Amino acid sequence: AREQHDGAGHEPAAEDAVGLGRCPECGAWSTAASPARAAPSDAGLVVRTLAGTGRAGARIHTGAPEADRVLGGGLVPGSVVLLAGEPGMGKSTLVLQLVAGLVEAGRRCLLVTGEESVDQVALRAARLGAPRERIRVAASGSLGAVLEASAREEPEVLVVDSIQTLSDDALEQSSGSVVQVRECAASLVRHAKSTGRAVLLVGHVTKDGSVAGPKTLEHVVDAIVTLEGERSGSLRLLRAVKNRFGSCEETGVFAMTAGGLASVPDPSSMLLSDRRPGPGSAVHAGLEGTRPVLVEMQALVVGTPLAQPRRVAIGIDQRRLAALLAVLAKTARDKLSSCDVFVSAVGGLHVREPAGDLAALLALASALDGAPVDPGLVAVGEIGLGGEVRRAPGMERRLAEAARLGFARALVPRASKATCPGVDTIGVADIGEAIDALTSYRVARSAGPEVATCYA
Ligand code: TYD
Ligand code: MG
Prior knowledge:
The protein contains 15 helices and 18 strands. It is of the alpha/beta class. Strand 8 (251-257) and strand 9 form a beta hairpin. The longest helix has 18 residues, at 178-195. The N and C termini lie far apart (74 Å).
């Protein structure tokens, strides 16, 4: 009988066990789980199975499909989402557009602005064509006032722009300090959970991504989405970096226009629109989340008198560039040591995936030799430190996107089995083979244009 109680043998139901000292099944005394452990009570922790809990609540659609997709289908009632980004990225613009979409759909929203005056928000709303008469706005930097206003207004969605401007009077630190940001966010999380309201917080990040920003809030909020891009360009990417209610796979692509953020249905065409194929240019068949995006990689290699030549990475990780150059240096291209090297993912899209290595390498090798890469070719593959070309996920989708944009050939990892009608795949095992493919194109090209399309 004792073994039964220790194992998962029989488990007294909470109601039945109340007041029992003797097990109803085996007759032993003091072995049945005590009522305090099995039944909900103030004194003990309620432990239960997952059955019947965790129903997927209805999502609140924001009216911006691109944002909904990134959020995993919309805002979740009772949850807190942090929208993070550098100043000037368009966070205030985006939240105002979301609020406009929500009120258009009949949702109650409250927008609290701590950065701008109500007049400024109104001007922006007019520019965006938002329904000004239905958008409820308050300007405040006081947590207490915000919670009070939210209790009064009972919005389904509460937006606070920004968390850094909010302060809790009970604390002596100034607004924007780590303590204030964390405590105010924690209060808003409690508010969201207790009222079932969805809360959207705007948070500024500095270049290093830290100071009193999302890093201090990472554990507090349910989801973090970032809005990023090159400030000089118009492209903006919305990415989920944490999501308790969905995947972090999706990326929303927007362009900042005179009328606010507009979703970009075809980012590949936009990114390749200014491309001028030539030495130092190769096209990466990229994947942003689950979405294929073609990006041009450019490289420039120029002689330098500097003892420490420059290595500049724009839109790709500096460490990946360093690793690529180290791998390339081993193939006896010692010219690199006396040259400045610039590699750029064109168009303001930051290529984070290692699969961008192969296109960057082609661009570099082509820049070194002053000879162009096949303009009808895309490349995809990660390059290991041993010079091997490694597989990348989502090959079918990448190739299909290449085919859609008229690319006829793809340089891919040899181990990849993916195929796509209209695209000839050229498998390469290491960077030596990748550079050979570049050379054979050049040789074929000099033999005539007809031959150039079947060099592999
Ligand atoms: P903003 O939303 O204020 O950025 P953040 O809140 O992230 O600091 O907008 C930043 C920039 O966007 C601003 O410099 C001007 C530009 N912008 C447009 O180009 N079009 C627009 O319709 C709006 C509202 C802003
Ligand atoms: Mg702002």
